[in-house]
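Morning run. Coffee first, then this:
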Amino acid sequence: MKRLLPTLACGLLFASTTVHSAPPEPPAAPAPTAAPDAKPAPEAKPAAEPKRPDPKWNIRTDVLMVAMPQEKLLPLLPDLRDPKKIDAAVEQLLAAVQHKEAILTGYPTVYTVDGARGVTEAIVEKRYAVEYQPPGTLGATPAGASAPSPASTPPAPPVPPAPAAAAEAGEFNNVAMPTAFETRNVGPTLEVKPRVSDRGDLIYLDVVPQRVELLNFDTFDAAKTASGKTVKIEQPRFFTSKATVSLAIPNGQRTLVAVHLLAKPENYMEVFVLQAFATPIK
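And here it is:
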């Protein structure tokens, strides 16, 4: 036993010599303090926006939208495309509108200044359903929601439904109820951004005339109930006639910018005739 003690002591001494403590870190230098009479740095000012030059021109832009039977409109198209004959052809269009031989579908007009964007619209907001609740789920607990606890809500005594209420409930169980809606603008719109030449003889136009029409509602089979009844839903069908044009026209000159074959009335065509005027700002 006495011979083992020196060996154990040597082992402990050897183990203790393998642990080294890190040298103490030097104290951190104090943060520099500003001088008592030092002034704060001035705040940087935002860069001034470049000043836009004052506009020199007022611009009026019109788009005449007329629909006619194609057998009457087709002979007018060559004159509508000819800058020297377009004014006389437009007079024939307007006379046909007055005599109920053509339909004035729109006549939007925009007033703006040189280089500024202008928009006009004469629209009706048409709201229609895009999502439906399946039939037979009215009154059901929504997904993710918990039913009321029996302990907190005592069960009410059963009440037999009235015959009219039962019939109404059965009718609703065969209907897909709308739960989400969207809105579509119906009618003519005109968006234009003009730029006038220095002499005022030419007008450069980025123009978007458009007309949206509600044709009808299409009926679709959505689902079948447990009793085998087919549930139907209705969706709107729209027609859009639109032109996106960039062009340069003489001041006051009419120009044909679009020709469309309409979906309704059948065998009707529609023309968009653009005219722009620039007058100096005094």
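The first helix runs from residue 4 to 16. Good start to the day.
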